[in-house]
Amino acid sequence: MTEDSAIPPWSVAAGGACIPLPHAGQLAAMIAWMSAWGVTYHVPLIRAAAARHLAVIHLTAHNRVPEAMLSQAAVPLVVLVGADMPPHAGPSAIPQAEALMRWAGALIVHGAAGEPAHYAEAVRAALIKRRLLMVETATARQGEWAALRERVAPKLPALFIRTRPGVVHPIEAGPAGAVLQ
């Protein structure tokens, strides 16, 4: 991806537009900050974006990705749906959920604690398929995303990352006796 490309390495969909986030140098600082705090699961995806191997559009509930950005990507594009934080949005809270399923070349529905290996797999999938829809979701909503895929794009290659039986994601309280700050 070149510096003058229409799609920045990382952007956030908000209010019908995409707001570009930091350039490659700032993404490197973001990686360092995340690493210092031990929150490294997104690092493989951020590194790939900083190196301009792919672009990422972060989409949250009730927002849209401009159609032009989906069709203009000169590099592999990841639409990262952040739906695992309260109130745990399902597909009905993502106005383009059906259209994004049809657009995608591959799907990852991530309903577990994040690990760098999961996001490294997302990078690989994006580089191979060029259009990746990655949904970060709560355990309680995974079935809704699976049903949407089955209804809208049943042949779409998909990876479902789940918790172990009996474990839910996200964990909204710490272990007994833990102090959360």
Account of the protein in words:
With 181 residues, the chain is of the alpha/beta class. The chain has one domain: Rossmann fold (3-Layer(aba) Sandwich), CATH 3.40.50. Helices cover 33% and strands 21% of the residues. The protein has a seven-stranded mixed β-sheet with strand order 2-1-3-4-6-5-7, sandwiched between helices. Helix 1 (24-36) packs antiparallel against helix 2 and helix 2 (43-50) packs across helix 5 (116-129). It is globular.
Mean pLDDT: 85
Strand order of the largest sheet: 2-1-3-4-6-5-7
Query: Structural class, judged by helices and strands?
Result: alpha/beta
- Our measurement of the CA-to-CA distance between the termini, rounded to an integer number of angstroms, reads 39 Å
**What is the helix tally?**
6
